From TrEMBL:
PANTHER family for this protein: PYRIMIDINE/PURINE NUCLEOSIDE PHOSPHORYLASE, PYRIMIDINE_PURINE NUCLEOSIDE PHOSPHORYLASE
Annotated keywords: Glycosyltransferase, Transferase
Species whose genome carries this gene: Pseudoalteromonas lipolytica
Gene label: ppnP
EC number: 2.4.2.1, 2.4.2.2
One Pfam family cited in the UniProt record for this chain: Ppnp
Keyword Glycosyltransferase: yes
Keyword NADP tagged: no
CDD domains linked: cupin_PpnP-like
Catalytic activity: inosine + phosphate = alpha-D-ribose 1-phosphate + hypoxanthine; guanosine + phosphate = alpha-D-ribose 1-phosphate + guanine; xanthosine + phosphate = alpha-D-ribose 1-phosphate + xanthine; cytidine + phosphate = cytosine + alpha-D-ribose 1-phosphate
Role played: Catalyzes the phosphorolysis of diverse nucleosides, yielding D-ribose 1-phosphate and the respective free bases. Can use uridine, adenosine, guanosine, cytidine, thymidine, inosine and xanthosine as substrates. Also catalyzes the reverse reactions.
Descriptive protein name: Pyrimidine/purine nucleoside phosphorylase
Gene3D superfamilies in the cross-refs: Jelly Rolls
UniProt record similarity statement: Belongs to the nucleoside phosphorylase PpnP family.
Length: 103
């Protein structure tokens, strides 16, 4: 899906890691949410409170998922899912444009 129709977007940005990661929350008519975000170069640790689907729209990243010992390199068009109440690591060397869906 390349666009979201009939949604609301929260005006205030979610800003993390000294501004190296930012996102905007998109709210759908049924109350579900997604975030559209951008990561600059760096290494980041994220903690989840809900199950998340992370879709990479542009750029690339390496991810270290819970319980894994090997980093996975992903390019635009690829995605991964993480369960609720876990942490995972992301390394970005240039940039990463992403969409995160929550369930």
């Amino acid at each position: 899906m390349s666009q979201f129709d009939n949604v609301s977007v929260l005006k205030k940005a979610n800003v993390y890691f000294d501004g190296k990661v930012s996102s905007r929350t998109v709210v759908f008519a049924d109350g579900s949410t997604k975030t559209l975000g951008f990561m600059q170069p760096g290494e980041f640790e994220f903690a989840t409170s809900k199950k998340e689907l992370m879709e990479l729209n542009g750029g690339s990243w390496q991810v270290l998922l819970p319980g894994e010992s090997e980093w996975q390199t992903m390019q635009a068009g690829e995605s991964f899912t993480v369960d609720a109440n876990v942490t995972f690591l992301v390394k970005v060397s240039e940039f990463a444009d992403y969409c995160c869906s929550y369930s």
